[in-house]
Amino acid sequence: MKVEKKNIKPRWRRVLRGLFITVVVMVVGLLVHSVWNYFAGKQLHKEIAEIRAAGQPVTFAELAAGLPKVDDSRNAGRFYGAALELLTRGGEADVALDEFCGVFEKGPGAKPPDELIEDAKEILASNELVLQIVTRQKSARNVGLTSR
């Protein structure tokens, strides 16, 4: 029996062939990506032109020009911004909130464990300033000092 010898190309030719295939695939991919972006950009510009033709604002400057001016003394956004900044400083509230939700999903009569109640008291105490800010804002709204 005669064993056939496979025709194995030299290593440098196999490497060169692999590099060539890689370059061709990358060029084709780049070309497809460019064509895709061209048509997607064209479609986006067409949609923006239609929105602008309908009289809708498409830039932040146009949007701001169409909004009513609110006096700073009546703007409640600063209260919410301050409260949000205080809340995001501590990350412990997220864990306790998930645990509380788990307890209350069990039913209306479910009671959270004592440790969880103590954690909630600590979170409320640490966020006392946030609660005061929001309460102050709600009081101002009830008196008619805010825009909404």
Question: Can you tell me about this structure?
Answer:
The chain is mainly α. It has two domains: 11-65; 70-143, no CATH class. The protein is 71% helix and 0% strand. The protein has helices at residues 11-53, 60-66, 77-89, 92-104, 114-126, 128-143. Helix 4 (92-104) packs across helix 5 (114-126). The longest helix has 43 residues, at 11-53.
In short:
This protein has six helices and no strands.
Helix and strand layout, with pairings?
Blueprint: H1 11-53, H2 60-66, H3 77-89, H4 92-104, H5 114-126, H6 128-143
Give the count of helical stretches: 6
* Helical content class: over 70%
State the domain count: 2
Largest sheet: none
Order of helices and strands: HHHHHH
The helix/strand class is: mainly alpha
**Bulk shape:** flat
Radius of gyration, in angstroms, nearest whole number: 32 Å
The proportion of strand residues reads under 5%
* Spans where pLDDT lies below 50 across 5 or more residues: none
- Overall residue-averaged pLDDT value: 77
Number of DSSP strands? 0
Distance between the termini: 96 Å
Give descriptors for this structure.
148 residues, flat, mainly alpha, 6 helices, 0% strand
